[in-house]
Amino acid sequence: MTHAMGIGAPSLYAAFQSKEALYAEALRHYAVTNEGYVWAGFHAAGTARDAVRSFLEDSAAALTGCVADIPRGCMVTLSSVGSEGHADLGELARSARAVTFERLSTRLDRAVAEGEIPTSTDLHALARFVQTVQNGMSILARDGASRADLEAVADVAMAGWDVRTAGPGDGGG
User: Fold this and answer.
1) Rounded-to-integer distance, Cα 131 and Cα 85, Å
2) Which among 6, 32, 58, 102 is most buried, taking Cβ atoms within 10 Å?
3) Does any domain span residue 172?
4) Distance of CA 114 to CAs 41, 66, 108, Å?
5) Is residue 146 a part of any domain in this protein?
6) Within a domain: 3
7) CATH of the domain at 124
8) CA nearest 57: which of 74, 73, 45?
9) Digits of tens for pLDDT over the chain (173 positions)?
10) Alpha-carbon distance 45 to 23, whole Å?
């Protein structure tokens, strides 16, 4: 990125006071301007299954740069920030990732309340599964996977969803 802008990394970091502040601003900017690309369909979906499918498919598009204003790899870089030597930045990134789990959990709780998903379903594990699939898609996108590759992963995940959320009389659960 700095090469394309014709500046060095130290100059970029200095403009934000530090590397950590740059990442914090990038996370904030993403949340304000781009998270709708991944979450709008999720929030609008009528069922938890449709919400999760939308989340994974929209993630496939966003992670591969197939939607406006999200450079390929931007979400990947932001989602993979750890705490190696930067505890505050690591906590900020963990908090941002926790939003995904919270949104998934809330939607799954609603699905149980509405009778869409059996009460015997391990909602914590199901939310973690969906979150893990999306995180894995991020890694694959960073390594150059196409949107079609990531959508195929989403298809397999949804087949797992169907087995996991089937009622006792449906042959699953």
Assistant:
1) 25
2) 58
3) no
4) 19, 34, 10
5) yes
6) no
7) 1.10.357.10
8) 45
9) 555 555 666 666 677 777 677 777 777 776 676 677 889 999 999 999 999 999 999 999 988 887 655 454 445 444 555 555 667 777 777 887 899 999 999 999 999 999 999 999 999 999 999 999 999 998 999 899 999 999 999 999 999 999 999 877 665 44
10) 31
Most distant CA pair in the chain, distance: 62
User: For the chain, what is the domain count?
Assistant: 1
Quick one: tokens of 167? 């009622």
**How does pLDDT run across 115-154, given as a tens digit for each residue?**
999 999 999 999 999 999 999 998 999 899 999 999 999 9
Which helix (DSSP H) or strand (DSSP E) does residue 162 occupy?
Answer: helix 147-165
Residue-number span of the structural domain to which 69 is assigned: 18-167
Residue 93, judged by CB atoms within 10 A of its CB (0-12, 13-18, 19+), counts as buried
In a domain, 55, yes or no: yes
* DSSP conformation letters of 10-37: HHHHHHTTSHHHHHHHHHHHHHHHTHHH
